[in-house]
Structure formats: C-alpha cells, structure tokens
Amino acid sequence: MIKKTKIILKTSLLAIRRVLKKEEDKMHSCDDCGLISENIHDLQRHVKTWCPESRKRTRDEDDELTHKKLRLDDDSSEDDDDSAEEDDDDRFAFIVNEVWDDHSTQYDRKIKQLMEDDMSKKDAKEEASDIMLSKDRSLFMKKYKDFLMHMHELNASRLHRMIKQEIIELVADHDVHIDQAIEQVIKRHRTDFDSLFENYDDSDDEDGSEDDMDTKDNNE
C-alpha cells in the first residue's frame, strides 16, 4: 500500500513538473535579472523602466561607447594634425598650370626681348617671371573665382551631389583610384547629361518661338 502511494505521489510530482514546465515555457523572463513576466509586453516594459540590472548594463555600455568615442576623437584629431602638417598648396597646381599655359606666349616673348638686350637666358627667365607675376596673379584669381562659382552652382544640383557621393564611395569602399572612380561614375550618368542638353534645347526653342511671335506681331 505504501509502495503504491509513493508511486502515485511520484507520478503526480512528475505531472506537476510537466505542467509547470509548460507554463514556464509560456512565460517570458528577463535576461538581466531573471524576473518572469506573463507576456512579452510586460517584459519589455520591465526592461525599459524597472529592471535595475538592465539600467546598470545600459550605463556600462554607454560609458564604454563614450570612452570609445573619445579614443576615436583623439585618434581623428591626431590624424587631422598629421594631415594638416602634410597638406600644402600643391592642389592649386592645376590652376597655376592653366595660367602659365595661357601666358606662355607672352612669357616667351619677354624672355626673347630681354635676351636681345644682352641678358643671359637664366636672368631673362627670372626677370620675365617677375614682370609676368601681376598678370599671372590676376588671371589665377579670376580662374579660381570662376571655379568657386561653378562649385557653388553645382553643389545645389541633386545630380552633382549624387555623382560626388558615388565617387567618394568607390574610392573609400572599393579602393578605386580617384581618376577611375570619376570616369566610371560619369559614364554611368551619361544619359542624365543628355537630358540636360535636351532641357537647354527646349528653352532655346521657346525663346526662338517667342522671337518669331514678336516679329510676326511687328509685321502686322
């Protein structure tokens, strides 16, 4: 009788454990403090507002992110300092070379004139450079101003901004050389450039039609 009772109790305990296990599986527990909630919404509310372990972990993560950001900022500031030291004005060379090309005929003529006055070629070049300096500077400033105005206008263009971003991504993410990146992206948008010319053609046609109408009215 006692043995039979033990078997019944053991079976009942196993049944109770299975029921509790099923109920526990339906419940949702907090990974930080172990609190069990009846539904996922209560658990989310607990994690966001009440769980002390979650708040502590969040603070620790925030501190870690802050330290990482500070380290990155320090590294980037060092990189900026290095780049500032390495940076120079050679990037203006493309404008300077254009100025020299535009003034090459005048420059050569000055050298020839000075050499005719019994000046050595070396001295004539130095003298011609000094004479041409003010003209070179004026033309450089004009070209640079035009360049800045073009950039100002293009930066207002959605197409230009998109092209510039695609070039940056090619260079940064795919290690493509800047020349190749520019060429690839420009070719990719060649149909967009065609539409630009079509727009200008339409505006010219409209202007022409208005002129024709004005001429017709005057004749009448």
If you had to describe this structure to a student in words, what would you say it looks like?
The relative contact order is 0.03. The chain is mostly helical and 220 residues long. Mean pLDDT is 75; it is low at 65-72. Helix 4 (93-102) crosses helix 6 (121-155) and helix 7 packs across helix 8 (178-188). The protein is 85% helix and 2% strand. The chain has three domains: 1-73, no CATH class; 93-153; 157-204, no CATH class. The longest helix has 35 residues, at 52-86. It is elongated, with a radius of gyration of 39 Å. It has nine helices and two strands, in the order H-E-E-H-H-H-H-H-H-H-H. A two-stranded antiparallel sheet has the order 1-2. Strand 1 (28-29) and strand 2 (36-37) form a beta hairpin.
Summarize the structure.
The chain has helices at 2-26, 40-50, 52-86, 93-102, 104-116, 121-155, 158-174, 178-188, 190-219, and strands at 28-29, 36-37. The chain is mainly alpha-helical and 220 residues long. The chain has a two-stranded antiparallel sheet with strand order 1-2.
Measured between the Cα atoms of the first and last residue, the distance is 129 Å
Q: What can be said about the biggest beta sheet?
A: 2 strands, antiparallel
Low-confidence sequence ranges: 65-72
Q: What is the domain total for the residues? A: 3
Instruction: Count up the helices.
Output: 9
Biased composition (Acidic residues): 199-214
Region (Disordered): 198-220
